Every structure is written in structure tokens, then in C-alpha cells.
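We emphasize that the prediction below concerns an isolated chain of 515 residues; any contacts that depend on oligomerization or on bound cofactors are therefore not represented. The input was used exactly as deposited, without trimming of termini.
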Amino acid sequence: MDKNRRTFLNVLAQYVRTIINICLSLYSTRLALQALGKSDYGLFMLVGGVVAMLAFLTNAMVVTTQRHLSFYYGKKDLQQVKTVFSNALISHICLGLLLVAILFAVRPLLIAEQDGYLNIDLERIATTKTVYLIVVATLFMTFITAPFRALFIARENIVFISIVDICDGIIKVALVLCIFWVDTDKLLFYALIFLFVQSLNFLVFSLFANRKYAECSLLPRIKDVKWSEIGRIFNFAGWTIYGNACVIARTQGVAVLLNRFFGTVINSAYGIATQVYGSTAFLSQAILNAMSPRVIKAEGAGDRQLMLRLAGVTSKFCFLLLSMFTIPLCFEMNGVLNFWLGEQNVPEYAAVFCQCMIIAMMCDQITAGLIVANRAIGKIRNYQLLINTTKVMTIPLVWLSLHLEYPVAWTMYIYIFFELLCAVIRLFYMKATTTLSLIGYSKQVFGKIFLPTVTLVVVCVLCTMLPAMKFRFLITLALAVGVDVLIVYFCALEKTERDIVLKFLHRKQNDKKGI
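Result of the prediction step, given as a C-alpha cell string:
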């Protein structure tokens, strides 16, 4: 299959997958909030969030494994690919067990009848301890699934990943519906749902990869261990872990600060916002997963200019594909939340938290492709120290604003400021360390996203002038997406990109006719 067409299909598959899963996730959250109540749902988001402060290890190892696999695929060194995968799998298993031990050790410090750091009602302490253990087990299953998922990404078999993820979303919704009829503690049952789905996910990815790809082995032998390879993996992963740790620490650090100042109820509002942010980030990561193998393979093949050009294309598509839905969502957030959660169930501050989180995400997307470009080059220490240390500075400023009794919304304004600052720093850092042209990047990315963004904002402003009605957000979304697709096609896509779209549509039309 042609590389451009494969990339287009991968992006389309991930985009469709993510939209479907976002809808399923939002519906699942509404059901969970109704079944559990605001307090128990906030409690689950708090406990899960604290554990997620170490889940960045999973993401870091996926990124590391996929980077090395794609790099050697670009060099066409299949033996080295097999070596990388075997050592990556061994590393995941060992680190996963270490991670479980750490989380068990810190549980008494976080959750206790007296002097526990988390602010939890005494009657829910015992249940919270059990939920914590279930979440830890879920995290371990996620961790050991990572190398198999990375292999599929490096192989550019994104369609399979998309199918599995859609099935996961459907299964979760079906199981969440069962919460209303179970006789056991509903919070415990909710936690077990995630453990079951992730275990199923591991079985599907591992067994299919072992059957389809020769470089995959479910049980690597001791002789496959190469300490030099593990050293390279951990060197790269170490700095990736640092970067992911900073991002997670910022997000969860704000959650803990809000909990300390206001209790678990406001964690429901923040939990809703982080889920919306996570859904948009999920879409962004899906697009990056589809395009990053080509970026890294170009670097592996020694073509730096092609790599940078593809990184610019990645930034452009990440922003355009996200803004198509997130900008209308920002304008109609109150209506969407009322429809999603039920008007009586929307926590205070949920709307403003969600809007600010989305704006912060969009600020990050304008240079998202440069994240992959830096990863492809492999020299990430200075990048991680500069960019992600800056993001952590959100926490002390949020603490200061809460301590000085500024409005709660200032928490999110600070969040947006640091995300935009990091996007600007990323651009100038890549200019200083590579042959990236600021003028060329501006024309390729900023020049292409300007008109679609302005058009989207104008359409949304006009739609919000319509009389308030229950489903007005659907009108806004439909008009915004329809207009944006046309503007993007004619004004944001290059001729070669339009040709790919036309060829794909023409082929699909011929398939329907049986040609």
C-alpha cells in the first residue's frame, strides 16, 4: 500500500475510533455519575488520579518502544527490531512488578483512618483501600500490554488498534449499565470493570501480535536479554518518564490542591474536566500514533528534512482535526454538560474547567508534531528538562492563587498560560537544535490553520445567537463541522493531500460499484 494512503487510512481509523470512544466514554461517565453519586465518583477520580501519577511510566515505555522499533524499521534492520521488542517486553514486566510494589508501599500514607493525606470520609476508608488495590492491578495490566501496542503502532497497523479500542469502549458501557442492578458496593464494581476490560485488552493484543509478527515473542528467553539494549531503552525512557511525570504531576497536583482546599465535591467538576481533556488528548495521541511512525522512519533513513516536513504536517492535522469539534464544544459547553450529565448532576465549575482545559489542549497542538520530531532525533534530555519542568511550575502558582483566595477559575487560567508558553518554547528549541525554519513552519502550520480557526469561531458565535434550546449544541456542531471541512479542504490542505483524499473517495466509490 502507498505510504501516503496508509497514513491517511491510519489517521482516519484513529479519528473515527476516537470520536466513537469519546461518545461512549462520555455516556459511560454520565451513567457512572448517576449510579455512584457525586461523592463516590469524585472519590474514584481522586484515588485513580493518585495512582495515575505513576501511570506515566506506561506511556513513556510505549513511546520509547515504538520509537526504537520505528527507527530500526526505517533502517530495515529486522533483527534489531526483534532484539528491541524482546528486551522491551522484559523491561515492562520487571518495571511493572516494581511499580506494584511501590504503590502498595505508599497506600498507608495516602489512605488511612487518621492522618491519611487524602481527604476521605471515614465510612468509605475500607472501600477506598480495596478500590486502590484494584486500580493498581489495572495499572499493571496496562503496563504489560504496552510493548504489544507499541509494536502495532510501529508496524502502522492502526486499524487493528482502532477496532480493539472501539470494542473496549462498547464493553465498558455495557458493564457500567450493570451497576444499577448489582447488589455489591457500586464503587467496587465500577473499579472491577476497568480491571476486566484491561485484562481482556492484554490478551487480544499479545495473542494476535504473537501470531502475526515474527519479531514478537510472548515469553522472551534469558539469552534474548542484551544489557546494552536495555540500557539504551532505559536511557531514552528515563527522560520520557520525567516528561510524562511532570505532566501527570501537574494535572493530579492541581486535583490534590483542589481537594485540600474544597473537598471531594469539587473533584467531581475537575474530574469531568480532566476526562474531557483526556478525551481530546486521546484524539491528539491517536493522530500522533498514526503519523509518528513515518516521522521516525524518515529520521532512521537519514532524511532530516523529510522528517521535519512530516512533523509540520502532523502539527497541522492534530490542530485541525481537534478544533473541528473542540471549538464548537467550548461555545456550547453548558448545553453539552446538561445533556451529558443531566442538568441536576452538573457540578459547579465543571463548565469553566472544561472550557479552559480544551483551550490549553489546543495551545499544545500547534507544535505537537515537534514532540515527535524531537523523539525521532533521540536527544531528549534537554528538551524534557526545559519543556516539562516549565509545566510543573503550574502547581506552585495554583497553590498561591488558592492560598490568596483568588477565584477558582484562576486555577485554569494559569494552566492555559503555561501550556501556551511551553508551545512557544518548543518551537524555538527545535529551531536551535535542528534545521527547522520558523518561517517555513509558520507557513506550513500557522498559515494553514488560521482561516479555518477564525471561520469556526465566527460560525459558533452566530449559532450561539440562536434562541436557547435543549439541542442547540447539535446545530452548532453540525454547521461548524460542515463549514470547517470545506474550508480545510480548499484552504488548509496541500495539493498532494487533496489528491490523497480524492483517490481514497474515488476508490471507495468504485468498491461500492464492484469495480
